From TrEMBL:
The keyword Oxidoreductase applies. This is SDR family oxidoreductase. GO terms for molecular function: oxidoreductase activity. Keywords: Oxidoreductase. The keyword Oxidoreductase applies.
């Protein structure tokens, strides 16, 4: 792989939807690419198109991120390949329906891909990027992390994990005085991809006013990255609304851990 001036971006879930769209946009920004997903044929097809259209180097890296051995191979690549400057931690599964009465085996797979793999890859990339003092990690969460009551419980839990992981890792590297390592949590709303087709549902059954085209979503998320955002919510008109959430959260801070219970909880 010839080194590009932007370095190499490793994109998980690059065979369709948001991941494939990131791959396209990043290639046009001059990144070489490592494309990770299970469907090798689709990755090869995308890789061939992007090589032809943009001239960047594209490697296909088939892996099942529900499989610990495959996750370890991707981690090894992140730790060992100094050309990698960007991780897009995107691969994920949507819910089959409400968590109540759902297939617990499917939930386990969702947690393996949406949480365990995301965590392992984010930590591997953080270690590698901190060691060289540079690198960017984009974690794809979801707006449901902010409004858990609106969607399927276990999926929401996985996305709340991704948001909290990103905020906390960022705080850790800032506290450690590391500069040059950046994080972004992207919180898409409904975005037209294959995510619902895979669980027998369709975006066509939803209010079209709530569904963004995937190209617009990824372009907005990259604009948020360029603007230095830690958290990007592509459809949110007024950033002050999210800033207010954070102000309220931080105001809780001094009272969340004290040496005595609050008066209302004192017996008698
Ligand atoms: N679309 C939305 O409305 C929406 C909203 C908020 C957040 N998100 C998040 O966006 C991310 C991408 O989803 P999408 O909407 O683009 O859906 P998608 O079109 O279904 O794409 C999912 C990607 O993840 C990969 N993937 C699934 N299971 C995998 C596994 N076990 N190992 C490796 N790769 C796996 C798929 O590739 P293979 O099948 O080839 O493995 C595919 O490339 C997910 O994390 C999702 O939660 C989506």
């Amino acid at each position: 792989m010839s080194p590009s001036s932007q370095g190499t971006a490793l994109v998980t879930g690059a065979s369709s939807g948001i991941g494939a769209t990131y791959a396209d946009h990043l290639a046009r920004r001059g990144h070489d690419l490592i494309l990770v997903a299970r469907n090798q044929d689709r990755l090869e097809e995308l890789a061939a198109r992007l090589r032809a259209e943009t001239g960047v180097a594209v490697e296909v890296f088939p892996a099942d991120l529900a499989n610990p051995a495959d996750v370890a191979r991707v981690e090894g690549r992140l730790r060992g390949d100094a050309a990698i400057t960007l991780l897009v931690n995107n691969a994920g599964l949507g819910p089959q329906g409400p968590a109540l009465g759902s297939d617990i085996g499917y939930q386990d797979t969702m947690i393996a891909v949406n949480v365990t793999a995301v965590n392992r890859l984010a930590i591997a990339a953080t270690d590698a990027f901190v060691a060289k003092g540079a690198g960017t990690i984009i974690n794809i969460a979801s707006v449901v992390a902010l409004i858990p009551e609106l969607f399927s419980a276990t999926y929401v839990g996985t996305k709340a994990f991704v948001l909290a992981l990103t905020q906390s890792l960022n705080a850790e590297v800032v506290k450690a005085g590391v500069t040059g390592v950046r994080y972004q949590a992207v919180l898409p709303g409904l975005t037209r991809t294959e995510i619902f087709d895979r669980v027998g549902k369709s975006f066509d059954d939803l209010d079209p006013k709530m569904v963004m085209e995937v190209g617009e979503m990824v372009a907005a998320a990259l604009a948020g990255l360029d603007q230095g955002e830690l958290v990007t919510i592509p459809s949110l008109p007024d950033p002050a609304d999210f800033a207010a959430v954070n102000t309220a959260r931080y105001a809780l801070g001094p009272n969340l851990s004290r040496d005595h219970a609050a008066d209302r909880y004192k017996a008698g």
